[in-house]
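Support request, please re-run this one:
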Amino acid sequence: MTLDPEIKIEGSLIRHFSNLVKINGGINLAQGIPGFKPPEKLLKLLSASSYSDVHQYAPGSGNTSLLEFLYDKYRASSRLADIIITNGATEAISLIYNYLMYVTDNKDFNVAAFSPAYESYIHLPQIFGHKFFSIVIDDNDYFEEKSLESFFVENKIKLLFIASPGNPYGKSISKSKLDFLIRLAEKYNAYIIFDAVYNEIYFNEEQNCFSDKSVSPNVFYANSFSKKFSITGWRVGYFVMHKSHYTKMCYTHDYIGLSAPAPLQYAIAEFVKKDNYYEYIKELREKIKSNYYYAVEKLSKAGFYCPNADGGYFVWCRLPEGFNNSLKFGLDIYEQARTAIIPGIHFGNEWYNYIRINVARTDSEFKQGIDNIIEFVNRNRKL
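Re-run finished. Output below.
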């Protein structure tokens, strides 16, 4: 089968390239799903939960024990924090987005995100007909403060997305930069959604930006259990907000999400209460870190440019000289080497010559995938 490089793909490129593997086979370095097994004790707790009385709706804001664990984690920083458990971080982000439209009467709802931007940040504004603006991340300093404030004012930004470490580019924002953005949001009556799904998957130094300043009426902090426990199919996430939002947010949640699956919340609650799950996360972090540096070394030698990442699931890299179309690259490498990656244009048209590679896979599969990418480049390189 020959794939047309001008093919128009409807919907998510992540879904498209992952489905190629699911239907036709191959190595999936496209979708952000871990190749590792969840903690065995967590699975045993899930099995045991099937015989417990936990099969009806969970409380709207979440399993009581799981909320207690989260409150202990976050209220150490601020007593002003409130939390709702959701169907994954994606629902948390979309719920917050709907809520903000509700409380602002959906007026002048201009949205911005640091680019390359995760797909939800781009497509939620498109769905609701809002203007979207991208801010290209500076590899060294993230952003320049005066320029950022001017941009913020000129474009009347109402909502800013931040991910740290990011997806697809696993760069972390410093606490000082985040504090500046929070002050900016408060000054101009705007909001921040801080996506911290990968915050415990760091490569060198933990950069925990959550503090008492984070618990501002202008900031929402989204997170998930999915990536850290390798349970993306469970869809259990949560978000932290200032108390002032809690009543209206619960009202919004009742008619959009209602509750995440009760047995899954129960199993996670029992696991985090009874076990030192941080050991599991530490081991996971080391596996991903090892894969990341392996890929960067090999890809760099093959001509890719890989800006330094601080954590997360991905290598974000510019194609070697002679390859200028990331969509064509993705389609061709799957056709020739049955290896799926994500073209950079999925994260903004300006990233036409970048690709994203998932490094959170088992050692043998991952290394074979990287070898396939390099062999494909060597075979098709334009001299």
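The first helix runs from residue 13 to 24. The chain has two domains: 13-31+279-380, 40-274.
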